[in-house]
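Deliverable D4.2, example record:
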Amino acid sequence: MRNPGVIFANKLEAILNTVVADPSSFAFREKVSPKDAPDYRKIVRKPIDLSTIRERIRNHHYKSVSSFMDDFRLLEANCKLYNATRYVQLIPAVEAVVMLVKTEIEKERESLGELENMIALE
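Output generated by the structure prediction step:
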């Protein structure tokens, strides 16, 4: 069998591609620009975006579905923290992104679980 870490990363990237293709992900695809939100880094201490998640996938940062989901939960928390009184329309969008990720993970739950176990044994 090919390297389980590579297969795992490929599956995570396929999930991410589905998310990026969804219109609700538009605001989360790239890092928040200081030009667009000069106070963002003062409020959000651990920024995350979909391009950073893609980099992490490609660098084999994620060894579990749980760590992958942690970054999406961070994305959601950051969005809610920053946009609660600014761009409230982004809150349902980030919630849709997180729901989509969960749905896509569930479709691959069995194979992802097997790969996680193999990675843990390496």
